[in-house]
Amino acid sequence: MTKRMLIMLGGVLLLIAALALGKFLQIKQLIASAPKPGAQTVSTVTVTEQEWQPQLNAVGTVTAFRGVDVTAEIAGLVRDVKFKSGQNVARNAVLFQLNADADIAQLQALQASVDLAVTVLKRDQAQLAVQAVSQAQVDADTADLKSKRALVAQQAATVEKKTIRAPFSGRLGITTVNPGQYVNPGDKLVTLQTIDPIYVDFYVPQKHIASLNVGQHLNLQNDAYPDQQFAAKVSAINPKIDTATRNVLVEALLSNPKQQLLPGMFANVSVDVGSKLHYLTLPQTAITYNPYGSTVFVVVPDDKKDATKDATKDQAKDAPAAKPGANLIVHQVFVTTGDTRGDQVAIVKGLVANQIVVSSGQLKLQNGTSVVVNNSVQPANSPNPTPQEH
Fold this sequence. Notes:
Strand content: 35-45%
Distance between the termini: 92 Å
Shape: elongated
Number of helices: 4
CATH architecture of the largest domain: Beta Barrel
CATH superfamily of the largest domain: Efflux pump adaptor protein, beta barrel domain
Radius of gyration: 42 Å
CATH topology of the largest domain: Elongation Factor Tu (Ef-tu), domain 3
Number of domains: 3
Helix content: 10-25%
Oligomer: single chain
């Protein structure tokens, strides 16, 4: 009985082994018949050395050279509006005329009192010469004349306040005040802004204070005019650091003859600092950023797949050009990146000049992957990019 069971168990094991062998051979055949991965199409760029001007970048706010909301100093009824909204006006130009009829009449009455006081003073001075009146009377007449002249000056100032003028030259805003409207002291009537020249205010970290000085040149851009750069000069540096942010406020002045920039706009500010440097550069799309470090794929001939592991400057000069149709592979290299400038990034360590690097198509690559180069379409690689859509 035991012998039969052993025979049956042996037969079952042989059957299982035969089935497993058949399955293994079938899988092996399927793997052998699977299509081999072909070369991947990528675009490439040559590592080049470029001159970089170190810059401080900040976001600033455009402010008026002078700006004020014109208000009424005293109450009154608006008789006339002397301008159109958006008009440019000169200093002291009349903007609003309030009703001043009663004030003018009062001024005339006070002026009449002054004229009478002048006559009385002259008469008493003549009588004092013949000792018909005392010196005290003449002194009282003089004091009375001065008092009445002060009242005239006070009333004349009140009349003048009924004529509201531009305190400086500039562009007027949109007013909602109309003739016949009653205004109270402090009511905002219209805004007035001097926008040529114009200021831009921006903050920079305190560690960069040593790099800034009055008169330093800078450039700014605004999304309203993406293809245009505006030149400015640092006009003032705040002597106090913001304790909440540890930043310092910087003010720059620029001409605005076409009045393109308006108060309240934001601007991207770039300040040139220090001397020019030389960096190896790549488009930012060529860099693959990972938690364990930044990498690029260097393109090499298939028979020199290890050429970049110990690359030197002399070897880089002889690096082959990646031409379409060549038998090429890629080798992954760790790099240390530096500053960025537009679409470009500086390579501090890991590459040398003239090496060929994959600029797009990295997601489908790994070490040793065969590639075909197609540079008909290239990623952006400009130090001063502009928006692609306006």
